[in-house]
């Protein structure tokens, strides 16, 4: 094996955003002449640790941990550290021996929540679909809490979705919430800590023919953008995962070159707020976002 | 010899009869009690035609896949591939309709046929190679996940999903009843007739009740087991199609979570009417308990953690009432 | 002894000299290392009642299972109507006009009587749906003739083993078959039911249907059959017909030598004090006010018709069910067992009626099955709770020898034994433990004459050593042969006590029909 | 009449004997074949002491929980609560150590005792209330998830985990063998001795083999079933503790996925040596097949989709070889 090896451990290689990041990373790796191996940890931190250890065994040149917080991959980091392999995270934060991170999704929520509160005129009810086990989602929930706290006339109902099962959960929570929030009484909004639960909720809204509820997601996956185009979703924040993946791999080369002199750092790529008004222009700039 | 009558602990015939009713209808009584309770707790939002329609609409997909699973368990096997299969089918139908521009009915027919083929493969591995059904269907399910990946490269198929496809599950029909509910009633009704009212259904029940006896009596056990898997596979395909239509996309692993829901419904149902036997009507009751439990707890606004606790408790209590009634009545 | 060895030439036992309906030649079959059939041949003429006998493990059931398409022969050929057939599947066997009553009870617990009768039988339909009403009309007369008293739409749950047997018999009759094979059909039946079956068998024969009839009860064989094939150790060793067909010839062919007769050794023995006592024991609807005393050193028999409540009574005594009312005492102290475990603890043992479902662990070894009620004896000691496997194996070896269980060794899974040998394992478990009270429910069901003598001898030996034994048997000859005293039950009550010379087959059968 | 011997399709005794070996050792042969294959495919990275230690280390946790589950299935019940329970236990031990500053050994003992209590509850619901074990343990598992949420509000406990706690699973002991492996060997060894070499183990096997017969042979069936659940619960607790130590955090749902892995291992293992019976050694083999399969495919670098396909295929082939061998040998 002459080509340098890049090991990628994904929390869910079937999730759209993860897929785009992997595509970006793979593209950069190809340009660098590296080989990419992807392991799907299927949501299990234990599997992720195992996969990182396996890459350490393989003497990979660098490892990307996707979404698992650095605090949950202790054994993996230890193995990689022993083997002298740099580990970077996407959405997993910077800590322990992590060399770099991006995609820390918390701040992405700010423009979306701001817009939501503005459109509600500062009063009404929100159904928040949360997922606290995930670091990113938890950060976004904190952001939302802080902003909404400034508007005492807004009441928030929070429901935890599961992985897998987020579509179904989103739909069922929406069903129940809608039953006690009939149309025309107040301003209503549904917010997903990422797009998919919100998309599940849209299914429920459409099944009931409710169009009085504004729906917000985050990440800007293709389906969310499609829904914005069609008027079922109000806004999402598009995370340029592809570029994040791409940049991160390019940075990995710098990390390797710098060796012991490298200073851990965050290298964020800003998110883009996409709404009904901006979606067409956005898609012109980023046709890849919906392909 | 002591003269204390052992009969001190005996139950009167009247009590036994009452317990017998609990044994048969315990889960149904549980379902009704739950609906009444939630109606009292949330009188404005819970007991409305709209909410009930929504709950049924939402639960239809789980009911269809659970109905199929019922056939697999009735013949005495487990089918763990259904969730993964439904995910794959959702991707396939979207791909067929969006990329290959197949007419929707043709796509539906092809995907359901594929579901039957997957069932056939499961059944073949279980009956001919004699691999335990847990391993066989888990293995096949894992392979299907891989195929879903291969087909979609993990990227959901979203763009260009035609409105007509969405209308499959969003549409309403007679008296404004959502299509999903109508499809669910047709499927479960058909399965019920098949199992309970046809000669083939007798063989299906016999194989599940005692495969050795069925074989000795000349029933073609393998063929019946394969049939169970095929029906399970077809129902999974139908659920995958309707889910893709509901979500407007084909996404890998979108339907994976149906596996546990379907199992819960089927096993809950097995406590209904007949003791510990699986049957279609029971599955229906089980699925309703799960759906109304989830919805009612939510509407009442219980915090997340207590929702889990109460959901778990509902499962146990619904079955526990029936089981306890039965074992006391039979003492 | 002139055991006529007339293999090959069809005998004119009532049937015409035509092409045999079924010819089997040199059928061989091995299971793993066990050669179950080494080459058996047999032919059956149309309308003939052909007997098949042989010791436990001789290969009778294996032969039947091959005819039924359940096992595949390693060698040999089978012809029907002179045409060679590969049977292959049970479905094919049915198509060829054969129908079977297998040795092992086959029923689906969750189904009704009618559903069980129709198991695997093509059913009438209306608009594609099962037409139960029409089916019930067709089945009812046959069920009545067989003697099924339960309503056709009743659940089989709670029916006695005998009643379920009748269902199996009825199933075989409902199919219009040309050859009906019956593997020990009367093993679970009492005299009345058996008589009914004999009448049916004769009718079948008269109407041209052939019957292959397997039994360990030689009287039945001699009464019914015109020709009898004998299997020994996987070979057909004799075919007896006409004058050559009589009891001594059969016995000799079966065991390949003489056999100790089933003579009672001691008739009047001193019996000890009361060990187990029941007063007004009731559990509706099967047991109604039963009182009995069981003495140390006696063998007490319980006779009666099917469904008389004997099994239920045994279950009450053993703590497997709880009585509605009544009292029990053991060694003079109140005895209220809350479970079989409690009963075993204080010195009871039970050999249940239905060995496969209630007694045996079919996938486990003989040693496992024998030791499960004797675990204290295979432990290294109180403080070292490890199992002494050597002790276990040698204990099992003793029992295998004592009961002449036909098996390769103590680690053979019990499921691979022939029916009779399985029964010996079920009994052996308790003979090893030596309980104060041993209850045996149909102990020699399916056991060949040699082993039956041996089991009787062992039971009596235990009684002589002071054990109190309660034997339930539906076989009319068994109780007088084995017991010191017989109680007859009818409809849940004890209707007669017989002792000494009054204990005859005739007296027991008569008492069974007493209106309580 | 054709005289072609029926034996045309018959197998010779020699072939049968060879098939018999496959029947007994099929899964083990499969495991070895897989190891050889991966060694050829990745000669530098796969067949090294380091990698094998690594695989065993990774698999230890799954093996422990699967070992516990084996006891539940040996007594004839399913325990679906183990994954959820292990997640809860991971949160609890982290909470005890981080928030309550309990000494680690005390925390470990308390959590394992709680695991036993959960097993007791499962066992009680199944044996006394007579709820089907699928529903009972699914219900209890759901309740445990709720409790995990209640304890942690769903937020992982991360900060302030002491190094000594991490060393529970990261540490190495004799000859540098990782602690996890040592614990695993002790647990599985203990369970093996219990089931295979003690009188109590005979009762355990009897209950699973035929509960009716066990009861009539004087075995206290309920007590044995409860014991099975208790052991399953304690092993889940141990796995939860080691997982929390390995992850360095207590996270709701962190261990949920062990449920499927444990089931796969247990059912894979049931095809080893004895036909379709569950036993500890088989579970060990099953877990090894899964672990080496995952590792080998990872190291070989198969694309994601084919990893799934191959993993599924490995499951089916490993069992299929054994089962096919058995059924051919016994024809
Ligand atoms: N599935 C099997 N596996 C291994 N050995 C078997 C199997 N079935 C039967 N045998 C063996 O084949 C031999 C013949 O058994 P079979 O059941 O045919 O005897 P049988 O004549 O019917 O005896 P019984 O009168 O006790 O019913 C026995 O030694 C038995 O152990
Ligand atoms: N609680 C129970 N659980 C399981 N089986 C039972 C139970 N009670 C009774 N049975 C079965 O129901 C049948 C009832 O037998 P019963 O005592 O009425 O007849 P019997 O006199 O034993 O007749 P037979 O001549 O068939 O032995 C028995 O076969 C027994 O095994
Ligand atoms: Mg036999
Ligand atoms: Mg009886």
Beta-strand percentage of chain B? under 5%
Strand content of chain C: 15-25%
Helix percentage range of chain B: over 70%
Mean pLDDT of chain C: 87
Assign the CATH class of the largest domain in chain C. Alpha Beta
Task: Kindly describe this structure.
The complex is a heterotetramer, with 1 copy of chain A (291 residues), 2 copies of chain B (331 residues) and 1 copy of chain C (516 residues). Chain A is an alpha/beta fold and 291 residues long. Chain A has 10 helices and 12 strands. Chain A has helices at 16-32, 45-57, 74-83, 109-119, 135-148, 166-179, 195-208, 222-229, 241-258, 279-285, and strands spanning 5-10, 35-40, 62-66, 87-90, 100-102, 124-130, 154-160, 188-192, 213-216, 235-238, 265-266, 272-275. In chain A, the strands form 3 sheets. A 6-stranded parallel sheet of chain A has the order 2-1-3-4-5-11, sandwiched between helices. A 4-stranded parallel sheet of chain A has the order 7-6-8-9, with helices on both faces. The two termini of chain A are 34 Å apart. Chain B has 331 residues and is an all-alpha fold. Chain B is built from 13 helices and no strands. Chain B has helices spanning 13-41, 49-74, 82-98, 104-127, 133-152, 163-170, 179-197, 199-209, 211-216, 221-247, 258-269, 280-300, 304-329. In chain B, helix 6 (163-170) crosses helix 10. With 516 residues, chain C is α/β, with parallel strands linked by helices. Chain C has 4 domains: 24-97 and 178-190 and 206-256, 3-Layer(aba) Sandwich (Rossmann fold), CATH 3.40.50.300; 104-177, no CATH class; 273-347 and 437-444 and 467-516, P-loop containing nucleotide triphosphate hydrolases (Rossmann fold, 3-Layer(aba) Sandwich), CATH 3.40.50; 354-434, no CATH class. In chain C, strands 6-9-10-3-11-12 form a 6-stranded mixed sheet, with helices on both faces. The chains are: A alpha/beta (291), B mainly alpha (331), C alpha/beta (516). The interface between B and D is large, with 48 and 49 residues. One magnesium ion (MG) binds at residues 160-161, 310-311, 353, 441 of chain C.
């Amino acid at each position: 094996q002459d080509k340098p090896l890049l090991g990628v451990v994904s929390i869910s290689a079937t999730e759209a955003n993860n897929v785009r990041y992997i595509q970006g990373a793979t593209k950069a790796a190809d340009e660098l002449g590296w080989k990419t191996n992807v392991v799907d940890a299927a949501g299990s931190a234990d599997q992720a640790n195992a996969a990182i250890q396996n890459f350490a065994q393989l003497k990979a040149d660098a490892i990307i941990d996707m979404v698992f917080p650095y605090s949950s991959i202790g054994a993996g980091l230890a193995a990689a550290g022993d083997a002298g392999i740099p580990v970077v995270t996407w959405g997993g934060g910077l800590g322990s021996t992590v060399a770099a991170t991006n995609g820390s999704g918390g701040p992405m929520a700010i423009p979306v929540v701001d817009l939501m509160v503005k459109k509600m005129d500062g009063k009404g009810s929100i159904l928040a679909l949360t997922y606290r086990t995930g670091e990113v989602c938890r950060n976004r929930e904190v952001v939302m809490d802080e902003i909404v706290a400034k508007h005492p006339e807004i009441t928030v109902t929070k429901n935890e979705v599961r992985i897998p099962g987020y579509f179904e959960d989103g739909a069922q929570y929406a069903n129940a919430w809608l039953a006690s929030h009939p149309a025309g009484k107040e301003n209503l909004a549904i917010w997903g800590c990422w797009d998919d639960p919100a998309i599940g909720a849209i299914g429920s809204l459409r099944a009931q023919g409710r169009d009085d509820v504004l729906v917000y997601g985050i990440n800007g996956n293709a389906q969310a953008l499609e829904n914005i185009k069609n008027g079922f979703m109000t806004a999402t924040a598009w995370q340029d995962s592809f570029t994040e993946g791409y940049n991160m791999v390019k940075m990995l080369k710098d990390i390797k070159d710098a060796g012991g002199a490298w200073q851990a750092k965050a290298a964020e790529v800003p998110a883009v707020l996409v709404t009904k008004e901006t979606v067409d222009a956005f898609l012109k700039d980023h046709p890849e976002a919906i392909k | 010899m002591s003269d204390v009558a052992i009969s001190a602990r005996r139950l009167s015939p009247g009590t036994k009869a009452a317990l017998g009713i609990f044994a048969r209808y315990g889960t149904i009584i549980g379902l009704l009690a739950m609906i009444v309770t939630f109606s009292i707790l949330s009188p404005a939002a819970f007991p409305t035609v709209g909410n009930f329609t929504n709950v049924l609409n939402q639960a239809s997909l789980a009911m269809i896949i659970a109905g199929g699973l019922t056939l697999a368990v009735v013949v005495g096997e487990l089918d763990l591939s259904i969730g993964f299969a439904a995910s794959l089918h959702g991707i396939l139908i979207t791909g067929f309709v969006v990329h290959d521009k197949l007419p929707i009915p043709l796509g539906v027919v092809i995907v359901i046929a594929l579901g039957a083929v997957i069932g056939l493969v499961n059944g073949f591995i279980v009956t001919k190679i004699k691999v335990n059904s847990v391993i066989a269907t888990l293995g096949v399910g894992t392979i299907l996940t891989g195929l879903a990946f291969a087909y979609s490269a993990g990227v959901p198929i979203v763009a260009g999903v035609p409105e007509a496809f969405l209308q499959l599950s969003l549409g309403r029909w007679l008296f404004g009843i959502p299509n999903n509910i109508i499809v669910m009633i047709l499927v479960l009704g058909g399965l019920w007739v098949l199992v309970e009212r046809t000669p083939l259904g007798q063989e299906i029940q016999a194989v599940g009740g005692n495969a050795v006896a069925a074989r000795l009596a000349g029933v073609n056990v393998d063929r019946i087991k394969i049939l169970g898997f095929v029906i399970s596979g077809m129902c999974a395909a139908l659920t995958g199609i309707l889910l893709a239509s509901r979500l407007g996309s084909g996404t890998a692993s979108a339907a994976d979570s149906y596996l546990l829901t379907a199992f819960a419904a089927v096993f809950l149902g097995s406590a209904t009417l007949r003791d510990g036997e699986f049957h279609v009507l029971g599955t229906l009751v089980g699925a309703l308990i799960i759906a109304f439990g989830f919805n009612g707890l939510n509407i009442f606004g219980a915090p997340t953690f207590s929702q889990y606790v109460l959901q778990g408790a509902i499962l146990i209590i619904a079955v526990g009432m029936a089981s306890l009634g039965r074992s006391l009545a039979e003492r | 002894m002139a055991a006529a060895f007339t293999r090959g030439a069809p005998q004119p036992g009532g049937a015409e000299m035509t092409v045999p309906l079924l010819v089997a030649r040199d059928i061989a079959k091995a299971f793993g290392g066990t050669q179950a059939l080494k080459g058996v041949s047999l032919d059956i003429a149309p309308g003939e009642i052909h007997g098949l006998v042989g010791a436990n493990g001789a290969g009778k059931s294996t032969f039947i299972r091959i005819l039924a398409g359940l096992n595949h022969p390693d060698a040999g050929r089978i012809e029907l109507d002179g045409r060679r057939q590969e049977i292959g599947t049970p479905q094919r066997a049915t198509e060829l006009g054969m129908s079977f009553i297998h040795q092992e009870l086959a029923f689906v617990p969750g189904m009704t009587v009618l559903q069980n009768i129709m198991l695997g039988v093509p059913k009438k339909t209306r608009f594609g749906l099962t037409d139960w009403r029409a089916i019930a009309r067709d089945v009812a007369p046959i069920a009545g003739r067989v003697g099924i008293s339960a309503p056709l739409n009743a659940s089989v749950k709670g029916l006695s083993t005998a009643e379920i047997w009748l269902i199996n018999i009825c199933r075989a009759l409902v199919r219009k078959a040309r050859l009906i094979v019956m593997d020990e059909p009367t093993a679970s039946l009492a005299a009345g039911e058996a008589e009914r079956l004999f009448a049916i068998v004769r009718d079948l024969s008269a109407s041209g249907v052939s019957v292959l009839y397997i039994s360990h009860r030689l009287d039945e064989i001699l009464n019914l059959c015109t020709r009898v094939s004998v299997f020994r150790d996987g070979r057909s060793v004799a075919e007896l017909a006409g004058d050559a067909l009589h009891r001594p010839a059969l016995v000799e062919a079966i065991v390949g030598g003489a056999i100790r007769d089933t003579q009672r050794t001691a008739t009047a023995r001193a019996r000890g004090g009361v060990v187990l006592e029941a007063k007004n024991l009731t559990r509706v609807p099967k047991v109604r006010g039963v009182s009995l005393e069981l003495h140390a050193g006696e063998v007490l028999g319980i006779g009666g018709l099917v469904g008389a409540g004997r099994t239920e009574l045994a279950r009450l005594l053993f703590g497997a069910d709880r009585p509605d009312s009544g009292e029990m005492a053991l060694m003079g102290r109140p005895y209220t067992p809350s479970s079989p475990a409690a009963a075993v603890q204080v010195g009871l043992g039970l050999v249940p009626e239905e060995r496969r479902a209630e007694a045996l662990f079919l996938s486990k070894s003989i040693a496992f099955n024998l030791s499960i009620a004797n675990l204290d004896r295979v432990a290294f000691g109180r403080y070292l709770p490890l199992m002494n496997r050597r002790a276990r194996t040698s204990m099992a070896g003793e029992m295998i020898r004592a009961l002449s269980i036909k098996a390769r060794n103590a680690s053979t899974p019990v499921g691979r034994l022939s029916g009779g040998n399985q029964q010996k394992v079920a009994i052996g478990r308790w003979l090893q433990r030596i309980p104060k009270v041993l209850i045996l429910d149909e102990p020699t069901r399916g056991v060949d004459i040699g082993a039956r003598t041996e089991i009787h001898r062992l039971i009596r030996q235990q009684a002589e050593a002071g054990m109190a034994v309660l034997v339930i048997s539906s076989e009319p000859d068994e109780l007088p042969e084995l017991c010191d005293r017989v109680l007859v039950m009818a409809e849940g009550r004890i209707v007669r006590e017989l002792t000494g010379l009054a204990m005859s087959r005739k007296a027991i059968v008569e008492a069974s029909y007493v209106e309580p």
